[in-house]
Design brief:
Strand content: 25-35%
Number of strands: 27
Strand order of the largest sheet: 3-2-1-7-20-19
Bound molecules: flavin-adenine dinucleotide
Distance between the termini: 42 Å
CATH topology of the largest domain: FAD/NAD(P)-binding domain
Oligomer: single chain
CATH architecture of the largest domain: 3-Layer(bba) Sandwich
Length: 405
């Protein structure tokens, strides 16, 4: 592709990163970015942390591109349908936007299970507006309940404790963050929350929600009834792909892509001229295996946006596979958690630096390949960010080779 119009569906980090890369690579044609939020891309990561703790203001979240992307921004408008063969997007305001290339970067939305009275007292966090509403609710609350012991739930619990609120956290597993990080790290994180005064209800679920004029009553599976002024539900996300249902592009927990970020069409082949990036995209990261997965990390949205732009310009045949080492961070009650790779794929763990008992360590996650060789698939550092750097480039390599290196 050398000239014409590239449309970008979604105006978040993945979109901005793709647009920036297109300009870096010399794309001189038009770029049109369509986003349903009323604002340009901003940093979501403080929404569950500093914004709620009051240490960062909304005005500080704006994301600036490193270079002028010279785009036409169509904000407050949804992409409602895609015709991949006509190469056109249909917008919520009735317009049709023809394109020569398309980047799909529409992110995710929080899961909202049925039976929960979402509204003034019960919140989810994805957008700045969500975080503002939650911030206001926390300002009126004395007791807040967090449902879900994943990253966002844990971070909201920290921020609420920083505001000296009573916080109860409900998680069906026996420890926090067990799913993404496994039992060893989960035990350290859980202990940290308990020390910080978070009231943990582990191994329990909410069986019934009641909202009265005075507040919430949550009935738990162990018979406990919790009274609260506000609640946050953080039980995972769903990719924003509803608008693609009729397009024929393949959808499976996200927009299905080939290893190069090209979107897979109705005939199972990569569509020339359409790529996807960020939280909404599922693709096989060949560093690990051929199983398509989504990666919901800040750094991945940047790197995948860049790679998708490169792939779009190169076309499906010449494009290279996107094989990153996924990375993310989280801060909880002063504990710094950094992760590289995909720890959740590990079937065993091995201490790489320090000892778990010390509370400051790097843990490796391994799984055997088809020959039985242990491959390092992830590493997590607790309060040891520098030590993690040494292992980052070893992800995807045999553990033995890593030791010899
Ligand atoms: C509260 C919170 C805290 C986080 N903390 C961390 C962290 O500490 N570390 C980390 O690594 N990651 C963190 N993340 C994840 C990180 O923010 C995401 O991985 C990143 O924002 C993904 O970027 P994206 O562009 O794919 O999606 P998004 O940022 O969600 O952008 C997608 C945009 O597209 C819009 N959109 C959706 N559908 C349409 C449509 N049909 N038409 C037009 N526009 C549409 C959406 O409204 C949104 O504005 C956090 C996320 C949240 C919500």
């Amino acid at each position: 592709m050398s000239s014409g119009r590239i449309a970008v569906a979604g105006a978040g980090l993945g979109a901005l990163s793709a647009a920036e890369r297109l300009r870096e690579r010399g794309w001189t044609g038009e770029i049109v970015i369509v986003g349903d939020e009323p604002r340009r891309p901003y940093n979501r990561t403080p929404l569950s942390k500093q914004l709620l703790a009051g240490t960062r203001q909304p005005a500080e979240l704006r994301l600036a591109a490193h270079r002028d992307v010279d785009a036409t921004w169509v904000l407050g408008t949804s992409a409602v349908a895609l015709d991949p063969h006509q190469r056109s997007l249909h917008l919520g305001d009735g317009r049709r936007l023809d394109f020569d290339g398309l980047v799909i970067a529409t992110g995710t939305t929080p899961r909202r299970p049925g039976g929960i009275p979402f509204g003034r007292r019960v919140h989810t966090v994805r957008t700045l507006d969500d975080a503002r509403a939650l911030d206001a609710a926390l300002g009126r609350a004395r007791h807040v309940v967090v449902v879900g012991g994943g990253f966002i739930g844990c971070e909201v619990a920290c921020a609420a404790r920083d505001r000296a609120l009573t916080v109860s956290l409900i998680e069906p597993r026996e420890a926090l963050l067990t799913g993404p990080l496994g039992p060893t790290v989960a035990a350290t994180v859980t202990e940290q929350h308990a020390k910080a005064g978070v009231r943990l209800h582990l191994g329990t679920t909410v069986t019934r929600w009641e909202e009265t004029g005075r507040g919430l009553r949550l009935h738990l599976s162990d018979g406990t009834v919790l009274k609260a002024d506000a609640a946050v539900v953080a039980v995972g996300t769903e990719p924003r792909t509803d608008w693609l249902q009729a397009s024929g592009v393949q959808l499976a927990d996200g927009v299905s892509c080939d290893p190069t970020c090209h979107v897979i069409g109705p005939d199972g082949r990569a569509l020339d001229g359409i790529v996807a990036a960020g939280d909404a995209a599922t693709w096989p990261n060949l560093r690990f295996d051929a199983v398509p997965r989504r990666v919901e990390h800040w750094i991945n949205a940047i790197e995948m946006g860049q790679h998708a732009a490169d792939s779009l310009l190169a076309g499906p045949t010449a494009a290279a596979p996107f094989t990153p080492v996924p990375r993310f961070w989280s801060h909880q009650h002063g504990l710094r958690i950094q992760s590289a790779g995909m720890p959740a794929l590990g079937t065993a763990t091995v201490p790489l630096t320090g000892a778990p008992k010390s509370g400051r360590y790097v843990l490796g996650y391994t799984r055997p390949d088809q020959h039985g060789t242990e491959i390092l698939v992830g590493a997590v550092a607790l309060d040891a960010p520098r030590a993690l750097i040494a292992y980052r480039d070893q992800i995807g390599l045999p553990l033995a080779r890593r030791r010899a290196a």
